[in-house]
Amino acid sequence: MESSKSTEAYPMKGGDGVCSYTNNSSYQKSLSEVAMSFICEAVAEKLAVENLACGHPIRIADLGCSIGPNTFIAVENIINSVQIKYETLTISAPPDFQVFFNDHISNDFNTLFKTLPANKQYFAAGVPGSFYGRLFPRASIHVFHSSFALHWLSKVPKEVTEKSSGAWNKGRVHYGGADDGVIMAFRQQYMKDMEGFLKARADEVVCGGLVVVLMPGRPNEVPHCECIGNVLFEVLGCCLLAMAKQGKIAEETVESLNIPIYYASPQELEEIVDRNGCFTIERMEGLAHIAEPETKHAAGRLGMGIRVGVEGIFKGHLQDEMIDELFESYTKKLEQAPSMYSSGGAAILYSVDKFIFLADFIIIDFEADKDIPIILGRSFLATGRTLIDVQKGELTMRLQDQKVTFNVFNSLKYPDYLEEYSRITEIEEMCLEEGIQRNLKLEGEYDEDLEEESIEEIEETGTDVVPVEVAAFELLENNEQKDFTRP
């Protein structure tokens, strides 16, 4: 489990005031609403409710929930989708729902729970901590959801803050227009964080559960310096440097600031998931662009939206009045370049839902022992939706529209002399060569130039050649004549 000392927490701005995240997250809300149909389809097609224990609640966790109201909308959407699935399958009445709201320890959970919907259909609980480590018991959560959270790193890469490092990010607050070494440092931190995220979720999700992630990113072909999110942070960095040149803040302060955000491409996500091996990407969708009109109010909304997200990074480094001046200057810059937010480029997101197929164990390597059978556990058999026909001796395992059948009776007929059987092909070739050589020796006095047809005839008839099967039996250490060549 990851310790709190190994992560950095920069929660969204709390409270319910004019400058709070609660009142400045309409952009995230609009994109979450666009993704609702994808989430409904994922629940309908991939969530295996048939295997859920009767009478037990369905547990949902929203990772990086912040302070709402977007988290409440997402949770209600998931619950409604599960209820529809129960009605469609007519297997039983939907069970109770338990929802866990997760974010950093310093998140404003007080405001979150004060604003819980009065007509909520679930039991609510808060779970503070980093989602890059374990948060829940094993196999305890049915649906994981995360929106606009996984592009945040657990911490700023150490090497970009050290002057002696080749990846020192001098004069910048982000990696967008930086050297390759800086970009690689951010990328490696992202890969490490995501590996921790997937490993933790693989332990915590139930068999047949679902993980749905909505996250900002960039297309494969777009370089980091042209990604709209990085461009917006570059503009913010320029405003900060301008204040340093004016003597309002120290240059050392600018050099100590880095925004721990990384925008991954679909190719990078696929690489991470494949390397983890516990999940499969069932669907990856680019959401529809939502363009802002080129107005002064639009620039103000975008500037405030950026502020409520990253202001926590500047706290402790800048006084409140300096932070106010910084974002006033930033909003003016956005007004001068409206194409940055009117193009809809900031809406490059990927909705990734993963269907989980887990087993009790994975056999990586073992020393074969015929006296110790491998016993399949009940959870493993349930995962494969196993059917066992005792009369026929058949064991059938199913996954979606595929199935495989094993004949238990036949498996008992296979030889248990593994070492000898594994060498039988080599022995056959060796015996055949030896037999041919012996035959050539006998016939050498009659015909020194044996033609190729004669060799083929020897191979077919075996004249004066020790039979292959007998030779194989004679060479076996145990000298037992068992015909391994027949099933």
Query: What's the CATH class label of the largest domain?
Result: Alpha Beta
- Oligomer kind: single chain
Overall tally of domains? 3
Task: Please estimate the helix content.
Answer: 40-55%
Task: Count the E strands.
Answer: 10
The residue ranges in which pLDDT falls below 50 over 5 or more consecutive positions are 1-5, 342-375, 412-425, 461-487
Structural class, by secondary structure, is alpha/beta
Attribute tags:
487 residues; alpha/beta; Rossmann fold; 3 domains; 3-stranded antiparallel β-sheet; 10 strands; 14% strand; globular; disordered N terminus
Structure in words:
This protein folds into three domains: 4-356, Rossmann fold; 378-407, no CATH class; 418-475, no CATH class. It is 41% helix and 14% strand. The protein has helices at 26-46, 70-89, 109-114, 180-204, 228-245, 251-255, 266-276, 296-314, 320-336, 339-342, 378-383, 408-411, 418-422, 424-443, 452-461, 468-475, and strands at residues 58-63, 97-103, 123-128, 141-147, 205-216, 279-286, 349-356, 387-389, 394-399, 402-407. The chain is of the alpha/beta class. It starts with 25 loop residues before the first helix and ends in a 12-residue tail after the last helix. The protein is built from 16 helices and ten strands. Mean pLDDT is 74; it is low at 1-5, 342-375, 412-425 and 461-487. Strands 3-2-1-4-5-7-6 form a seven-stranded mixed β-sheet, sandwiched between helices.
Strand and helix layout:
Elements: H1 26-46, E1 58-63, H2 70-89, E2 97-103, H3 109-114, E3 123-128, E4 141-147, H4 180-204, E5 205-216, H5 228-245, H6 251-255, H7 266-276, E6 279-286, H8 296-314, H9 320-336, H10 339-342, E7 349-356, H11 378-383, E8 387-389, E9 394-399, E10 402-407, H12 408-411, H13 418-422, H14 424-443, H15 452-461, H16 468-475
Parallel strand pairs: 1-2, 1-4, 2-3, 4-5
Antiparallel strand pairs: 5-7, 6-7, 8-9, 9-10
Helix pairs in contact: 1-2, 4-7, 5-9, 8-9, 14-16
